[in-house]
Amino acid sequence: MMNEAGRVLSLLLEGKFICQVTDEEAWRYLKRRDNVQTLEPHLALLNRSLATTADGEVFFCAYTTLGDAERKVLQQQFQDIASNLIPLVEWLMLIQQASESDIPLTIGGALRLSELQSVIEDTPAYAEQLEKISRYRLFNSTSVNLDGQLKQVFKRLTDLGYLHKPNSEKQIYLATGKIEHLYEIIRFIDETESLSLAEQADAAISQGNLL
Amino acid sequence: MSQALIQASGRLFNALSRHHELIMQVYLNGQVDETQSSTKVLEQLIQLGILWRPDAHSPLRLKSAVRNLLESSLQDERNRTIDANIGAALASLKTLVGHYKEAMHYNRYSEAQSHMSTLTEHVYQLTESLGNSVRIMFSRINNEFGYVVSVDAKIRENELAQSQVSDLLQQLECFQFDQLSELAGSQRELRHLLVVALQQSFSRAAQELSVAQARLLDLLGRFREFKGRTRLLKGFLLHCEHHPDFTVNEYPALSQVPTLFNQAAAMLNPAAADVNYVHHEADYHQMATQLTHLGNRPKAETSETVNNELEVTEQSTVALIKGEIQHAVECYFCEVIDSGQACSALDYYQHQNFDFDAEVWIYQVIGGYQALDETDKLFFALDTQGQAHTTFTGNYYIHDVTLGLR
Fold first, then answer.
1. Do B239 and A93 touch (CB under 8 A)?
2. Could you say which residues of chain A have pLDDT below 70?
3. Chain A from 90 to 129: CB within 8 A of any B CB
4. Of A37, A211, B130, B314, which has the highest C-beta tally within 10 A?
């Protein structure tokens, strides 16, 4: 049997994102400074180190030094992230609009599939948007009915680690720390490429108000 | 929802009318004589929010809302106070204390008693209204301003709540306990009201308000965060719409890769079984017995062979192709029939210029004749020309055959 340190270490080496939603015990373990110190030497041995994102709420494993092989991996990952950004952001917007509270999805946010489905079914614009989203290569749905599209999208997101399904029998999903990571990436791109995305959105909203 | 409310209000009004004597008694006396009414009735009235108990040791009192209702409906201006702010309430308390002390000084006990009950009423009203304001604040915070939908409206509600909290905190500063305790002097009842009761409710309210303020600030931060995120997402989509050729810079190619994009690949794979490890022998054994596909293996192979389909096609007829020479023999027979005259095989051979051996030809002609049916054979006569061997008897050399019709 592995102890907690071994379990957390193997989770990290499997490339998982550890947050309060996906694995609260591991997350609590990593929150303690002395526990991290016991793990660090093992990770360092494998050219890895513990990295955090979203204000230290999400843990994952990063490379310490970057050789050619590591860069290749990262570039491949980055290609995936960059090509998945638009589908993911469109999905987040759809979820936000379809949920009654109009609050963006954050870590720990619960999504009830049946509620979402009834809202989307009742609103043709959302249904169209869902169809568009489900056709992206990321989700790759071939289903013609809304139910299948929604299920496929949620299944893919769960596989990719953006959502967590605490009870396999209930269609309730929780947003994981990877969602926060996604926001961080967009924020980072916004800042480094000085796109001033927020200002663009504000301008569009004020124009909408004028109309 | 409205149906439930209507039912609840029905219960309330029924209770008010059924127990109106008791309620009016409480209204006039300021408190309930619990020995004269059944505890069941009192419980019901407490549950309906008509009576309340300010603290564990004090008797039941009428709720200020009910009292206000009665006062305004009965146009009884006797006890009405303007609950505008705590400062005013405190000032009225001081005045009442003055009245009470004066009455006590002149030994007008019944008058003093009436002042005392008014004072008690005011003190508890003040504590009740304080408690109520804090409770309202908390109920708003607890459902995160759920009664308004948009995040903007929530932010506005939050700002309103914050200003209310700071107002309340400012008003709480009006409590000056040194003055109140001086006012109460050595009177036990006065001290209990002005110092103990007020201080308790003051400290509770102040504590809860500070918690509320922290929560409000926290919530405001969260709402701002929500707004920021929404704008970020919307902005990103807009940007991608406006610049369809937008591609993200390749950050992993930088010399310093940001941590966000530095995610190590998964590297753990399942371990393999070590059959030489004795401790695991029992487990391996168990696993081996549970292997189901092991028994299926031969089946899998046969199924593979089945897959090689037998091509069932029309079988090519085994044609007994008659050789050229046989054909020539038939032609020779037909020639004899057509001409009706005997013809030597070699003559026919020379006539047709066959390119096979003459001896083979003669053999074939003889064979062709022998192969005929008995009935057919009767039509033909085969005559051989040849000579016997010069030395050995019994050997006959055939030079030629002649086929004719009988």
1. no
2. 1, 205, 207-211
3. 90, 92-93, 96, 100-104, 106
4. B130
- Alpha-carbon distances, residue A162 vs A110, A157, A158, A166, A181 (angstroms): 12, 5, 6, 13, 9
All residues of chain B having their beta carbon less than 8 Å from the beta carbon of residue A197 are: 231-232, 234-236, 238-239
Taking the domains of chain B in order of start, what are their residue ranges? 1-74, 81-247, 324-405
Pairwise CB contact (< 8 Å): B248 & A74? no
Residue A23 CA to residue A106 CA, distance in Å, equals 16
pLDDT at position B362? 84
Q: Is B49 on the interface with A (CB under 8 A)?
A: no
Chain position carrying tokens 């987040």: A92
For A9, half-sphere exposure in the C-beta direction (CA atoms, 13 angstrom radius) is 18
Give pLDDT, residue B80: 42
Strand partners, B402: B344, B383
3-state SS of B104-152?
HHCCCHHHHHHHHHHHHHHHHHHHHHHHHHHHHHHHHHHCCCCCCCCHH
pLDDT digit string (tens) for B273-331? Answer: 888 888 888 888 888 888 776 555 555 444 444 455 566 666 555 555 567 788 888 88
B224 touches chain A (CB under 8 A): no
Instruction: Collect all residues of chain B within an 8 Å Cβ-Cβ radius of residue A62.
Output: 259, 262-264
Does A102 sit within 8 Å of B149, measured CB to CB? Answer: yes
Q: How far apart are CA A193 and CA A199, in angstroms?
A: 14
Q: How confident is the model over B98-125, as pLDDT tens digits?
A: 888 888 888 888 888 888 888 888 888 8
